[in-house]
């Protein structure tokens, strides 16, 4: 029996997820449980695009009410539609560009906020 398919492994994974959720909530990480559920939804439904979209809609609506996110957060769902369209087109991004995009766009937003 392989460890990663065992019942103990499932309990361990579930326990780890619960611990991460509690830590994110206790220390008020940015986006908190909403962010963790977004990662979880993308992981679980990576090949079920319809479910990915539906669960992320639900996650976003709950996030708006629980975390008092501005309702503009709904617009973030358009990113999922773009991801779905690009996946169907078998769109690939250079790995270097992929890893640099997030820190560069955060830097650009910071510079915009300063000026």
Summary keywords:
115 residues; mainly alpha
Describe this structure in words.
This protein has 115 residues and is mostly helical. The protein has one domain (31-114). Helices cover 72% and strands 0% of the residues. The chain contains 5 helices and no strands. The protein has helices at 7-26, 32-44, 49-66, 77-88, 95-114. Helix 2 packs antiparallel against helix 3 (49-66) and helix 3 packs antiparallel against helix 4. It is globular.
Instruction: Please state the structural category.
Output: mainly alpha
The number of distinct structural domains comes to 1
In whole angstroms, how far apart are the ends? Answer: 59 Å
> How many helical stretches?
5
What order do the helices and strands come in, and which of them pair?
Layout: H1 7-26, H2 32-44, H3 49-66, H4 77-88, H5 95-114
Helix pairs in contact: 2-3, 3-4
Write a brief structural summary.
With 115 residues, the chain is mainly α.
């Amino acid at each position: 029996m392989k460890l990663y398919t065992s019942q103990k492994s499932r309990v361990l994974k579930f326990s780890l997820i619960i611990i991460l959720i509690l830590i994110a909530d206790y220390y008020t990480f940015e986006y908190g449980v909403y962010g963790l559920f977004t990662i979880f939804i993308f992981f679980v439904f990576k090949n079920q695009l319809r479910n990915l979209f539906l669960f992320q809609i639900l996650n976003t609506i709950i996030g708006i009410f629980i975390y008092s996110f501005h309702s503009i957060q709904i617009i973030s769902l358009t990113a999922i539609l773009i991801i779905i369209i690009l996946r169907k087109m078998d769109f690939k991004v250079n790995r270097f560009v992929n890893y640099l995009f997030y820190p560069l766009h955060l830097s650009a937003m910071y510079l915009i906020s300063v000026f």
